[in-house]
Amino acid sequence: MQSFNFKVPTEIVFGRGAENKAAEKLTAYNAHRVFIVYGGGSVVKSGLLGRIEKSLQEAGLFTQSKGGVQPNPRLSWVREAVKEAIAFKADFILAVGGGSVIDSAKATAHGTANPEIDVWSFWNGSVKLEKSLPVGAVLTLSAAGSETSDSAVITNEETGKKAGLNTPFNRPALAFMNPELTYTIPKKQLICGTSDILMHTLERYFTSVKEENTLTDRIAEALMITVIEATRRAIKDQTDYDAMSEIMYAGTISHCGLTELGRCKDFACHKLGHELSGRFDVTHGASLTAVWGSWAHYVYRDDIPRFAKFAERVWGITEGTEEERAKAGIDKTVAYFKEIDMPTNFTELGIGVQGEDVLEALADSCTAGGTKVVANFHPIDKQTAVEIYRLANK
């Protein structure tokens, strides 16, 4: 096992009716004025938002709510939310929704705590974040793992740039996780969410660290097997509590940092996929599966034994040479994405075959005009990014 630092301060309340403990827990965290953020109308129509507002108010807390968060959460929405939260004198931000809502809540918390600074400054790196407000999350979609992660992603519509921020201030104080709240999500959100969970672990499994980290690897492999099996069950029956609870728990574990201990993040496909989401406004999970197979076929020779191990432990592939097993594991993963109706190239993603100028522009943005290299398993410069995009461009 290699050296690491690991701290996840989030208190998780998991199981049926977990959201009903929100008032009790927020009060214990000394919340008084709770600014609630949410997405579309589903949490309103289901009555979930109303139930939470009522319980908080009955406990003596003041609340104000703001909806309208979109997938690939927008900077303009966050800026408006910051203004409203400051005027409300919020001291706690509560997200009711999935990853985009939670990321928006994190950004709102950062902006509210730093009213003299434009919130985008934290994402573009021009200002270091040094304080924030506490954030809580009532999870309604298993996907991003933002309920415990140190990351948050925001899209600047003016520039088309989707950027992530990693900081300890992004760790929520509380996460309320009731799998039953995910029963009615659209199938597309279900499969995009579980694909995102897989990708968060894959992007930590294939890294530049060659030394053995047995327990971390076994946790990652078990998580991926569990998600694959549970997703197949959930597609058939989204009210399968066991399947949906395994998916929800896996989403948290996949992005809290546990599956990278002694290793690191690579996140090559996230960097490549963010550019697709920023330019074409495609769903995050779909942008990842659309490029993963192309990335894997391009880089697998950098560590054939690692890909062969993945093939054996996750997919049970034991026949053939080491390289044949490695390639078979990649093909099996791509086939699985197709099986659950996730895209594996640009046409399946819905953006069609792109011109060379677009591929160059995507690669240019991904590598800051060719001035930086991203990822570490196979460092990706601008030309490498173009070549991977070409492989997916069909």
Automatic annotation (TrEMBL):
What superkingdom heads the lineage?
Answer: Bacteria
Q: Where is the Fe-containing alcohol dehydrogenase-like C-terminal domain?
A: 194-390
Keyword Kinase: yes or no? no
Q: Please indicate if the UniProt record lists Plastid as a keyword.
A: no
Q: Name one GO molecular function term.
A: metal ion binding
The record's CDD domains line, in alphabetical order, gives: BDH
Output the Gene Ontology cellular-component terms.
cytosol
Give the Pfam families listed for this entry.
Answer: ADH_Fe_C, Fe-ADH
Pinpoint the Alcohol dehydrogenase iron-type/glycerol dehydrogenase GldA domain residues: 9-179
* Assigned keywords, A-Z: Oxidoreductase
Q: What protein name applies here?
A: Uncharacterized protein
Tell me the organism: Selenomonas ruminantium
